Amino acid sequence: MRKKILVTGGAGFIGSHLCKKLLEENNEVLCLDNYFTGSKMNILPLLDNPMFELIRHDIVNPYIAEVDEIYNLACPASPIHYQHNPIQTVKISVMGAINMLETAKATGAKILQASTSEVYGDPKIHPQVESYWGNVNPIGERSCYDEGKRCAETLFMDYHRQSQLKIKIIRIFNTYGPNMHPNDGRVVSNFIVQCLRNEDITIYGDGNQSRSFQYVDDLIEGMTKMMATPNEFIGPVNIGNPTEFTILELAQAVINLTNSKSKLIFKRLPMDDPQQRRPDISLAKDKLNWTPKIELEEGLKKTIEYFDILLKKNN
Length: 315
Description:
Elements: E1 4-8, H1 13-24, E2 28-33, H2 40-43, E3 52-56, E4 69-72, H3 79-82, H4 86-107, E5 110-116, H5 143-163, E6 167-172, E7 175-176, H6 187-196, E8 201-204, E9 210-212, E10 214-215, H7 216-227, E11 237-239, E12 244-246, H8 247-258, E13 264-267, H9 282-288, H10 296-314
Parallel strand pairs: 1-2, 1-4, 2-3, 4-5, 5-6, 6-11, 7-10, 8-13
Antiparallel strand pairs: 9-12
Helix pairs in contact: 1-7, 4-5, 6-8, 6-10, 8-10
């Protein structure tokens, strides 16, 4: 049955892939974006689809539409962008969540919150399980994003308890792939762009901090599977790839795949940068029958191809 689905942040990196997937499943999609980090170029191939509607809107302001489902993705997600205007980042996370929850309340829609592994902060347990409450600095440079997302989860749970809203919460771990912004400051896009330009690769700290990297297609599958679960299961649930790599290993992989002449340079580690980040995905396996399928090398090749075309086009 065709559904009418609202995607906030739909012109962003993840949102554009989600819109494409939902259209392929024969749904009607309303895409909301204010283009702070999103781009019309990401959704250009979708504009001719009669089931796709693009609306310029900032969810800090209320928006009501008769929809069956809402995916709330709107929020800058890279440190460069969310630290550019930290107060606005908190507003998007908190007021945006309230506005979308009010829309769900008014229309009876099921609503999914795209939360983040950043709610775990610099974790004291490894890998991270959903029952872990995290180790977050509430007054640091990253707090606008970390605490904003934590508050959004609180709001979702309180609307569920108080108004019986049908909610879903996922916690997204490091994700990469086509449609990433070349200057978003995230480690995968940074390394690929630097290597394609044969510039020095910037490593923050000693490079031995670890991350787990999931390709965007795996995330989208996990996201849509979560939305399709029975109403009794609300999450939160980790969606990420549990295979762990150091930042140095990632840099070397990108150098090898691009045949780059880039050299490594080391800079001071940013404040509150986590030393380790890896999801325990037992719950996702059990409740969603989901595991990531795309290995790092395969995903990096696809992402490198995207950036290579993009950079050549912009030169």
